[in-house]
Write a structure and sequence with these properties.
The chain is mainly alpha-helical and 103 residues long. It has a domain of 53 residues. Helix content is 59%, strand content 0%. It is elongated and about 45 Å long.
């Protein structure tokens, strides 16, 4: 999450101005850079955390019950119905990270 937060922070006007304006939370965004990073990580984590629950069965199938039940934040990708079918070989090639331990 630290890496994702740093990447998001590179888009300063969008992340610290536009998105908070659209959500009506501009008064929540701190002025200091360190405080902004803490705020951004908390905001983004709250935004994506529900995805892990939505895909909990898939996480457990992929990582096993013990690990899959404890994953809190994920990125999810929708496979296009117009693309080549996502078979096991293509899944391994495109999503190699999820097929390896990355602790």
């Amino acid at each position: 999450m630290d890496t994702v937060t740093k990447m998001l922070a590179c888009h300063k006007s969008q992340v610290f101005d536009l998105l908070p304006f659209n959500q009506g939370i501009t008064d929540e965004v701190p002025a200091g850079e360190s405080e902004r990073m803490t705020w951004l990580k908390r905001w983004y984590t709250a935004l994506i955390r529900p995805r892990a629950d939505r895909f909990r069965k898939t996480l457990i199938a992929q990582y096993g019950r013990e690990r899959g039940e404890h994953i809190e934040c994920i990125e999810a990708f929708e496979i296009s119905e117009y693309a080549t079918p996502l078979d096991a070989t293509a899944r391994q090639r495109l999503f190699w990270f999820c097929c390896h331990d990355a602790d």
